[in-house]
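Posting for a labmate who doesn't have an account.
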Amino acid sequence: MVRMVKVLDNFKSQSFETPDEALDAVMAIYDQQLSFLREAFKDFVKNGSKVASGGRIRAFYPYARVFTRLARRSDTRLSYGFAPRPGTYSTTLTRPDIFRKYYHEQFRLLIKNHDVPIEVGVSETPIPIHFALGESFHLEGDLTGDQLKDLPDIFDVPNLDIMDDEIANSTYVPGPGQDEPLSLFTAPRVDLSLQRLKHYCGMPAEFFQHYIIFTNYQFYIDEFIKIGRKKAGKDGYTRFEGPDPKGRLPQMPAYHLMREDGKGITMVNIGVGPSNAKTITDHIAVLRPHAWLMLGHCAGLRNSQQLGDYVLAHGYLREDHVLDDHLPLSIPIPALAEIQMALESAVEEVTGEAGYDLKKVMRTGTVATTDDRNWELCSAVQQNQRLSQSRAIAMDMESGTIAANGFRFRVPYGTLLCVSDKPLHGQLKLPGMADTFYRERIDQHLLIGIRTMEKLREYSPEKLHSRKLRSFNEAAFQ
């Protein structure tokens, strides 16, 4: 028996010469498809069994497609906004309420660089009902057991087979007759991450700003809340937002010092460990931020370092293992000049040290990232040999992961750590010593991070999203 499928089929694909027209079409399709699905779901909640007998109900994401005849770009300094070679490229799109400015800019650059129209239409990729209902709707809590059982027979549910990161990992190969990818992420992959961000961080995705600071200690968040509230309403910042302080905090709470243009600062307490670092960067990457930084504590590996000294990572010894299947260890993770210069300049500005004197408070070099919180329990001989060969100057549990995922997802990244202990030299992180360190250093360290982001904001996105993060066969979208 073939079941009837109800779809909304009132929009034919069209080609548009301007980004405004193309974006308007994307929004019209998305809104119509979403409204159709939501109305059908309301009917299902009210008349479940009757709707279930009426057949499957489907809605689809909009798509954007370009046909390029020449591989060119108007400015060879650009790292995105153009197709790498002649061909047909497409992607599915979602949440134009969040990505309106982003989509508009990508469309504008494609039209400018290739002098071709943008085709917009209804894709063959269904919108899962979970994503259509938004981040705040929980099916399990709002439907009966029978309704949950019937749901997959009526509506599309998330399909993990089309939510992988093959495009970002540079392992995707289109099948015969398939288009080349236009963006790193498909619409279902984006929608999944938007849901996860609300779950992990306690705030909807629209609050996230373009400049992200990660930390592994609540002390930094406490200080960011104080600074954020003072800055709100000044220097272009409009407001400060965070999870409800009276409620239960999410696993990785995020706080947002916001601007109207989205170029404010978001800070996330990711907790400890590379698994958390990968989890949150996997999802924030779909928002296409302009930069992310790791501000946290580390073990100093050189006896000449003092507690409270800063470490500016120029390289990473990756022993976190969580990305080994996605980004082989043989792939180098380079330092990015724009980020490095902004970090060093901010350290000079905040500490008052400059030039050769900056070496008194900061070292640059390799940071080793491990997945073993008790790495100090290995023999000193074993530790010293590996770390000495790598020339590492610090050890932590998140920085290498965050930098590697920035590289993988083409998000500019950087690391500035603060030495909180020196286990190889007899200075272990014990409660009394740690408390003193936290009081004396966190405020200055955080101010450096904020000032770095403000300096990076002075760059244009074209300068930050440099060619260093793009391969020779890249998706056109930034």
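Reply:
Got it, the structure tokens are right above this. The CA atoms of residues 79 and 467 lie 5 Å apart.
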